[in-house]
Amino acid sequence: MPGMTLYDKLVASHEVARIDAEHVLLYVDLHIMNEYTSPQAFSGLAARGRRVLRPGQQMAVVDHVIPTHSVPAAARVIQEPASSLQARNLKRNCDEQGIALFDTTDPLQGIEHVVAPEHGMILPGMVVLCGDSHTTTYGALGALGFGIGTSEVEHILATQTLVYRVARNMRVRVDGRLPAGVSAKDLVIYLVHRLGAQGARGFAVEYCGQAIEDLSAEARMTLCNMTVEAGARAALIAPDDTTRRYVEARAPHLGGADLELARAHWRTLYSDDDARFEAEHVFDAASIAPFVTWGTSPDQAVPVGGAVPDPEAEPDALARIALRKAIDYIGLAPGTPIAGVPIDRVFIGSCTNGRIEDLRVVAGLVRGRKVAPGVRAMVVPGSGAVRAQAEAEGIAAQLIEAGFEWRQPGCSMCLAMNDDVLRPGERCASTTNRNFEGRQGRGGRTHLMSPAMAAAAALAGRIVDARALEQAA
């Protein structure tokens, strides 16, 4: 009998019952909620006269609709009526059911996928679900995480389980070491570009190789977070010493015999040597440069030295139509070098790149420099804890001195569900995860890139290779 993949082990260890050849009833260790995917689920539960089965295994955050204006946390108010109602409903539901909530005025409020790991809620071997597609983030710590729909949220609240269709296994190995100035964000944009927007559809992707081992825990979160943009149902990295150090520093509830048992379990979380993967890909880290998206899908990307492609060179008729549509929306001519494209806005933040490591990179690059005239640049920390740490380290002061807006935490301009939006035609250098039409505001044009690349664009007023500024810093 062949060995098991890490994904197989995680599913098997949480299988309550086998439903058929493709489906299992999966136990959920932690369920995370936000204000916009949970209201209907609570209403459905109430209509059936049921209560949340295990409130201690739920956690909620107000993050998508909250404004990020620079006011004290205690004074934060959601003015937009529909958004305010969503937040109030979440608080009422959490209060009634005894669920922990990081509410609007909580100093530790933040983006769900930043808050949960930093508070030690995510441990290797867990199954963690949330009504948000970027729940794949938690695979960075050896946990199985994926997004769910509102009806599934209700099922978990009622039963702490999920009817789950098992994914296929894909392994992506990245050999060698990333060149200086190339980050996890560049790596994942490159991988999504190479795999395609549907290249991992139906798969749980396990990453391995020297380049992956070299990444910090936070950089691995960036990688796993955006793997969903290749269609993946999950992303995983086997726990190692990097994982252990990150988790143990943030999970004080683990100690003594419990910690030793946990460590022993974590050591079993790897793919067996004879495990079978339905698909495998190998890439060379040394060949990767900083990457930037040029179009309206995360796979429409080029290295910073590249150019907007010519649709007429695409042999497939449907792909050619899609390229033309993306080029028309983004407002760039075929053959335009991506370096040198002027930008109006810069957004640094999101569940992909709103952690303290990201902000340290930005601060190091902008020290002693100024945001270009005519550019509005915003930095939105991923959580209240990140914000406080950045202020304690002097990062916030450096960003403000350089001309960046220093905001309160939240999803902010990632998806324009609040008042941080692009105006029609504005072009933004963004550290977010999606560049869809209208994602950051109706008619807004988004170029995804790393925090270093976005900071460099803010200073130059156009897309540039951040490595030149890093070398001069």
TrEMBL record:
Keywords: 4Fe-4S, Amino-acid biosynthesis, Branched-chain amino acid biosynthesis, Iron, Iron-sulfur, Leucine biosynthesis, Lyase, Metal-binding
Gene3D superfamilies, alphabetized: Aconitase, domain 3
Biological pathway: Amino-acid biosynthesis; L-leucine biosynthesis; L-leucine from 3-methyl-2-oxobutanoate: step 2/4
Domain Aconitase/3-isopropylmalate dehydratase large subunit alpha/beta/alpha: 9-461
InterPro entries: 3-IsopropMal_deHydase_lsu, Acnase/IPM_dHydase_lsu_aba_1/3, Acoase/IPM_deHydtase_lsu_aba, Aconitase_4Fe-4S_BS, Aconitase_4Fe-4S_dom, IPM_dehydratase_rel_enz, IPMI_cat
Binding of [4Fe-4S] cluster, residues: 351, 411, 414
Leading EC class: lyase
Cofactor binding note: Binds 1 [4Fe-4S] cluster per subunit.
Example GO biological process: L-leucine biosynthetic process
Classification via SUPFAM superfamilies: Aconitase iron-sulfur domain
EC number: 4.2.1.33
UniProt catalytic activity: (2R,3S)-3-isopropylmalate = (2S)-2-isopropylmalate
One MF annotation (Gene Ontology) recorded for this entry: 3-isopropylmalate dehydratase activity
Subunit structure: Heterodimer of LeuC and LeuD.
Function: Catalyzes the isomerization between 2-isopropylmalate and 3-isopropylmalate, via the formation of 2-isopropylmaleate.
Protein name: 3-isopropylmalate dehydratase large subunit
Taxonomic source organism: Bordetella petrii (strain ATCC BAA-461 / DSM 12804 / CCUG 43448 / CIP 107267 / Se-1111R)
Organism placement in taxonomy: Bacteria, Pseudomonadati, Pseudomonadota, Betaproteobacteria, Burkholderiales
Gene: leuC3
